[in-house]
Amino acid sequence: MINYFFISSPLHFFIATNLAISHKGDINIALFISKNKKTAQQYAKATEHFNDIFQHTFDLTIDDEQSKFKQRKQKFNQIKALVSSMLPDKIFTGSDRRMEFQFAMHQARKSNTQLEGIYIDDGTVSYLGHKSIHSVFHKHIDPFLKKLIYGTWWKNALTTGSSDWISIAYLAVPQDAHPLLKNKHLVALDQSVFSSKRFLQVNQFLIEKYDELNNIDFSKIRAVICLPNESFYLKNSVFLQQIKNAITKEFNLSDIAIKAHPKSKNMSLLADIFPNSIQLPNTLGMELLLPKLTNDTCIIGDVSTALLTAKWLKPKVSVQAFELNTAISINLKKLFNSLGISFISL
User: Fold this and answer.
1) Of 62, 110, 202, 346, which is most buried, counting CB atoms within 10 Å of its CB?
2) Do 6 and 92 touch, CB atoms closer than 8 A?
3) Cβ(115)–Cβ(168) below 8 Å
4) Which residue range is the domain that position 289 belongs to?
5) Same domain, 33 and 84
6) Which distant-in-sequence residues (6+ apart) come within 8 Å of 317 by Cβ?
7) 169-205 confidence digits (pLDDT tens)
8) What is the mean pLDDT of residues 252-273?
9) Residue 199: inside a domain
10) 25 and 123: one domain?
């Protein structure tokens, strides 16, 4: 069997690796279409290194500084050539709205009518639906324009994973899937693979270049605070103090590790608010740090896919979400509660 994995985020990479390990004996091909070329290159090095998991790697990332339309045509030609040389039996994607995935399905179906399009969990959107699901542009105008520009092979997905290209969906929590995914064949991800020896070796390879991790005793960390983009708390001066007041009711500052958002720059502010705490590299994804933490660590953060990922990749850790003075949907609370994620009021 030949499997294509379209990867456009770290979460997609981890789930693709999980499934590729589970499909040992098949030919697994990683195709990177990330919006961040540096991230794509980082993870592509891992797939190239572990060629027993992914036998082939291709970088189809588009450079934002060049014409996207022209580049996309070039990527389509690359995909067309690849499909001709290695006709896939299954194509996995974390976003069936991506042009590259849909074009690959269109091309491959010409020669393989039994080809399966498979959605892999993309976090909260799999359960809550696309943020623009009810907009006129999303439902009618955008798909019309895409068909006009690229071709009638384009199939609209009201929410990620719901297009007609998809027949199977691998989800962490299938029972809580969005209603538009209910008509797909839902399969539960084998979460035990995330703690397997081979998966952890891939994880270790990705973090080896971060020398500062060698100076951190992860066994002493009792809680990790995952902060949102600093633009949020720089406009809300009491936010960090509220977090500090809530967290120090249970943990000492010296037992706490701070994980700033990857785009954060004002690290000195965090050091001032949380003195004596451990500063984790903000450029390193939380997904990569999880294997370093003990099972009795508590991970605390804003309501986001990052918390879901933490629970999926390391089910035994305690995960808590900040409950801010903003409306949290009933469905989101239901999803978090079903995974054992509790809320902290600030």
Assistant:
1) 202
2) yes
3) no
4) 210-345
5) yes
6) 290, 293, 295, 296, 297, 298, 299, 310, 311
7) 999 989 989 999 999 999 999 989 998 999 999 999 9
8) 89
9) no
10) yes
Give residue-wise pLDDT tens across range 156-165: 999 999 999 9
316 and 173 in a common domain:
no
Q: Which two tokens stand for residue 272?
A: 């001032």
pTM of the full predicted structure?
A: 0.89
Quote the pLDDT of residue 328: 60
Give how many domains the chain has, as a whole number: 2
Among 162, 194, 226, the domain-final residue is: 194
Q: Rounded CA gap, 55 and 32, in Å?
A: 14
Q: Report the CATH number at residue 283.
A: 3.40.50.11110
236, 128: one domain: no
* Letter string b/e over residues 51-80, b meaning 16 or more CB atoms within 10 A of that residue's CB: eebbbbbbbbbbeeeeeeeeebeebbeebe
Domain-located, residue 328: yes
